[in-house]
Amino acid sequence: MTRGDSPVTGDCAVCRVEFLCVFAALHEILRVQKLGKNHDGYHGETIDIRAVLDEIVITAQRNRWISEIFHETGDCKWIALHRAPISITDPQSPIRIYISAGIHGDEPGGPLAALKLVHENRWPENAEIMLLPCLNPGGFTTNQRENAGGIDLNRDYRHPKSAEVRAHIAWLERQPQFGLYLCLHEDWESHGFYLYEQNPDRKPSLAEKMITVVKTVCPIDLSENIEGRAAHGGIIRPILNPLDRPDWPEAFYLISHKARQGYTLEAPSDFPLPVRVNALVAAVNAAMDF
Ligand SMILES: [Zn+2]
For residues 181 and 256, what is the distance between their CA atoms, to the nearest angstrom? Predict the structure, then answer.
């Protein structure tokens, strides 16, 4: 891919070459520090979301995924990708994994991680994957967290007002239960990668394994308090009853209706974009390696 073809706009802070620098050598990545760009919000690289999504769909279809458009506004499309399991030991119980990204339009690492995941195409053979690479394409066109109408979609899942979330919930209602959900995010304030775990049935946790793998490619935020919640080694296990909160994020809908275990992954967006993409991809790969 030449620079002119790159779906990323703006310079990559690591190699200043092209988008595929997300495959940069590890020794290049580990030298990086916080950039100090983000002061009141995200001020890093932006992406051409339409080009990224086009490339994700083309790559996924080449790898025999099925793509579906479940919502459309203007020239923005909401895409769901489906990968059937290649082999199933027990036909009644494929591992169903739901992965979403791009619900906040100022978090480009998520859709780029989705692109890298479909490009690498390394999935457990018996896994059925549902991948939604961008839940807020409108927000990416203006590099803003909210949708074009100013709604934070990740607070709209209990009593949805936005057409996007209504369409997403309608799509989710057509899906079987998931064994695991992974929601890919970025945090412009954080000092490193961290994650939220929801695991009400106390299944074997995947959190420590993800942190162990991610810290080889990205710093971990070791703060004892992140976003107002107690954190330990980059892991937040919120004790929450979704019914106590009126403004549900996507993860609350998922844990209430579609899955009994899941993780919200937060890459630190004051670090170079390739580091964040690699952190998200590493966490997803670690979670799937069960
Ligand atoms: Zn987010």
Answer: 12
Structural domain total, the chain: 1
Residue 259 in any domain: the answer is yes
pLDDT digits (tens, 9 = 90+) for 232-255: 999 999 987 888 888 999 999 999
3 domain-assigned: no
Domain membership of residue 82 as a residue range: 8-287
Q: What's the whole-number average pLDDT of the chain?
A: 88
**From ligand 1's centre to the CA of 123, what distance in Å?**
24
Instruction: Say if pTM beats, i.e. exceeds, 0.90.
Output: no
**What would the DSSP string read from start to end of the chain?**
--GGG-SEES--TTTSS-GGGGG--HHHHTT-------SSS--S-EE-HHHHHHHHHHHHHHTT-EEEEEEEETTEEEEEEEE--S--SSTT-PEEEEEEE-SSTT-THHHHHHHHHHHHT---TTEEEEEE--S-HHHHHTT-SS-TTS--GGG-SSS--SHHHHHHHHHHHTSPPBSEEEEEEEETT-SSBEEEEE-TT-PPP-HHHHHHHHTTTS-B---SEETTEE-BTTEE-----GGG-SS--HHHHHHHHTBS-EEEEEEETTS-HHHHHHHHHHHHHHHH--
Instruction: State in Å: Cα 5 to ligand 1 middle.
Output: 27
Distance 93 CA to ligand 1 centre (A): 31
Does 55 reside within a domain?
yes
Contact 109, 269 (CB under 8 A): yes
Q: Is the model's pLDDT at 34 over the cut of 80?
A: no
CA of 76 to the centre of ligand 1 (A): 19
